[in-house]
Amino acid sequence: VSAGENRPAQEIRLVLPTDTQHLRLARLVAAGVAAPAGLGIDDVDDLRIGVDELCTTLVEASVPGALTLVFTFDDGQVEVRGRTPARVPLDLDDRRLALSAEILAVVADEHELAADGDDLTFRLLKRRVEPRPPAAH
Amino acid sequence: MGSPSHGALTIDHDIDSDGSVRLRLEGELDAHGAPELETVLSQSVATGATVKVDLTEVSFVDSSGLAALLEARTRLAAVGGTLNIVGVSDAAARLLAIAGVDADLMDPDR
Known about the structure:
The complex is a heterodimer of chains A (about 140) and B (about 110). Chain A has about 140 residues and is α+β, with helices and mostly antiparallel strands. In chain A, about 35% of the residues lie in helices and about 30% in strands. Chain A contains 3 helices and 6 strands. Chain A has a 6-stranded antiparallel β-sheet with strand order 1-2-3-4-6-5, with helices on one face. In chain A, helix 1 (about 25-35) packs antiparallel against helix 2 (about 40-60) and helix 2 packs antiparallel against helix 3. Chain A starts with a strand and ends in a 10-residue tail after the last strand. Mean pLDDT of chain A is about 90; it is low at about 1-5. With about 110 residues, chain B is of the alpha/beta class. In chain B, helix 1 packs parallel to helix 2 (about 65-80). The radius of gyration of chain B is 12 Å and the shape is globular. Chain B starts with 9 loop residues before the first strand and ends in a 5-residue tail after the last helix. The model of chain B has no long low-confidence stretch (mean pLDDT about 90). The interface of A and B includes residues 20, 23, 45, 52 and 53 of A.
């Protein structure tokens, strides 16, 4: 794990074997970067869930190798990008994928899965929910 | 709601006095733990059992865990069995609701 030095945006890069036993570590790092980004408790949970869902899809689609995650965060938001070499053809569990899409639609502000050459990639963005301003009288 | 347990998934297996199978899960039900749940549930499917799943001690659930439960529920229904969730942690309840499967999986008499 390496951390960048440029503020306000900071970056943490995590490289994991493409094995489901390491999903927990991805969730832990997601929670770790959410706090300095100022996300609230519910947003942290959402980010952990979203990262887990997208990493699960990449691991399910991957050939044995590495899952690379880049967490970029500043005040108010966290962006996570993931990449892994993918199997051809992709043979994903449709039932799980449909559930995952339902979940991601709720927990992520933005997300996308995409093929890039032989790799499968994702991008997820989670923004802090700003408190509502006081009602005008 | 109980206090969920963090860490790798463990599954306790009991037979209730009414003959139904009660599975008490503890830890994280993600893509790493789901295959173990699938293995345990497949044994119940083979006997057409009534299965009660307790997620009170589960600290994390994702689509892999939900898919395992829904798949077993479908296969059990085909052989005259049932599967219902009889207890949930806050984390599990939220995931069930977000995925829109709480009405399908939760025991209506809970």
